[in-house]
Fold these 3 entries.
Entry 1:
Amino acid sequence: MAYKGWEMPEVKVKFVSLIRDYTGVKETTINIPKGAKLKDLISILEERFPGLKKIKEKRINIIVLADGQTVHEDSQDISVYKKIVLLPPASGG
Amino acid sequence: MPTGKIVYNINEVFSELNKLSSSLKKYGYEGGGALVIFIGYVKGVVEGKKVFSLEYEAYEPLASEKLKEIALSEASTDGVLDIAIYHLVGELKPGDPAVYIAVYAVSRGEAFATARRVLERIKKEVPIFKLEKREDGEFWVIGDRRRIRRELSQS
């Protein structure tokens, strides 16, 4: 399906720690279809960075921040946000 | 005043710890009778393997905000007078302190319980990550115990 520019909002995605290892870059900018859900974003990112598939393979429960807020629902429309951050589970202390 | 922050230099923590004796007096007059200090430090052996270093990374400013939030919310516990949390980041060696938690309370029960709760919350809620460099390779520590061998992406 072809999308027009305005239907594909631009979003900046940051990768932290282990996830940065899997992509090989700290951040990227991508266009995602309007109304895209988290799984759509992940599919687009996996196409660009195949290393990201290891997150599922290794069953790592990543944390997703959208404009600073944690994304809890898979059904949430994330195309409305400007900045997404993918983080692994915390391991401080 | 409850404090929670990421620090990049251990001297910053030492200067805070030097203030402890005067703080005891201050909190003593406010009814305090217990100070519990927890110091978490880097292990030199994990899973039977020698550890060279532990590289801590914080996602800022969120990590400092979360530390502050934990300090503020736990300091409102009944019987707790004040809390200070300092978490170091960067490359630390075995025996280096990584996290300091100080809890001033009316008595030992609240002090010990709160210090423990603060530590558990730091481990789960604060975006701090660590890479363990040891004799058999490099491992990302996931959550409290899980380790994933480091493999750099080909993409």
Entry 2:
Amino acid sequence: MIEMPEVTPTDAEDGVQIDLISGARMEEMASMEKVRLILDGVRDGNIVILEEGLSPNEESKLIEVTMTEISPDEFNGIEIETYPRSETADRSFLDRLMGRESTKKLTVIGPANQIQTLHKDENLISALVSRK
Amino acid sequence: MGLLTGLRDSIARVTERLFSASDPKRIGIYGPPNAGKTTLANRIARDWTGDAIGPESHVPHETRRARRKENVEIERNGRTVTIDIVDTPGVTTKVDYKEFLEHDIDEEDAVRRSREATEGVAEAMHWLREDVDGVIYVLDSTEDPFTQVNTMLIGIIESQDLPVLILANKTDLDDSNVKRIEDAFPQHRTIPLSALEGDNMDEVYDRIAEYFG
């Protein structure tokens, strides 16, 4: 779904591909399309950065689908990082009533065996990314 | 005719509400692996029914299927609260079978356990979205609560508008830090306890009756 950058396979083997996906692009997608987009990228060894993150329901589906795809020596699952602030707690009564969810939080997702969180607090996420 | 239909519908609604109010609430015990969920579930089940729910272990992902104990009647201040306890597998975003090898488990068994663990986590997420009426969220108070799994799960629970109690477990250990958990989730009530030793269970039962009764 994402157009591949113009690099030769040799270049790709030397580095780690990072996909930064805008909120506008995600807005048009259904929940399962978002989950698929993320997992396809991560299973290719890419780091996926979402400008506006996922809703709690989508995060729940992402965990569930990730679990069904884990297989020994091939895919160990994902590492996912967002700021540890509960956005849903900030929703107004009207937002909750209308089912509007404020989930705009930068989210980083990568293969569990390639990304390691070094530090995380309310304002900063620091992670180490390694090649396959 | 319209009046009769309307009357019948409203009687059906009232009956349904009366019965659903008396049905036991299904309370899911959630949390990361090794927080002591099964130890707590067994403690509650033994205290009020005499039976245990499942085996406890130091090996992560010992609970790989959601297990339900029905009709647990908790007596508090002269009234009885009936709940179904659902002990769920610890939630994670990754499972590596090699981690089981460190616990003297052979490779074939480790691969089988990791497969069951992943199925168990998927099952736990499904229960959370569809089948529980309240959540007891168990955390190991010796560990940092600011993890991604905790942040996401609490967010998912809040988005479902489920009542939630946070239990800061393992207060019998020296490096237990309950305040760190209170600070991480200030919007929820945190209760310290040792499910293993049975410390502070009276307060746990008071709050269960208050939140889920």
Entry 3:
Amino acid sequence: MIPSDYLSAALLIAGAVFFLAGTVGLLRFPDVYTRLHALTKADNVGLGLVVAGLALQAESWAVVGKLLLIWLLVLLAGASVAHLVAVAARQRGIKLWKR
Amino acid sequence: MQALYLALALFLLLNLAAGMWRVLRGPTAADRMLAAQLFGTTAVAVLLLLAQATGNAALRDVALLFALLAAVTAVAFVRRAWPDQASDHDPK
């Protein structure tokens, strides 16, 4: 393994940890709004770190470009979806969680 | 590196299986949709890892398509599929 492999492995594992955190949050958090918060971490940071790790290993710049394009698309979609779901949940009278 | 890619892909797949619990439990349609949304993102990550592990570049295009479809699905869900009896906001 060359040094960039170690960096890449570290980024990939960190990304997987964020996906794990997102899944645990989705299972454990008490209402829609807090679950949205867990979900966006996995979407944005988890996938971002995986993409960064894979980009270091990519064979050409075209592949790096495609990876970044996928990540940006997921970022854009994740932000819009989180907003839409939160607004729709409010409109449908889903109560905010209170301790 | 090959083994790491495959191990991480398997790990993400197990995450996905755990997320199924939320789809079954609900309690609201939105919770199920959020789980499906997480599946979409996880599937993208799994496909990117598999593309690198197997050297099959076409899988990256599949990942791109998944990312696109996940967005369209969620918007369609919020605008069309989620029944809205509880309020009279936003008439369609």
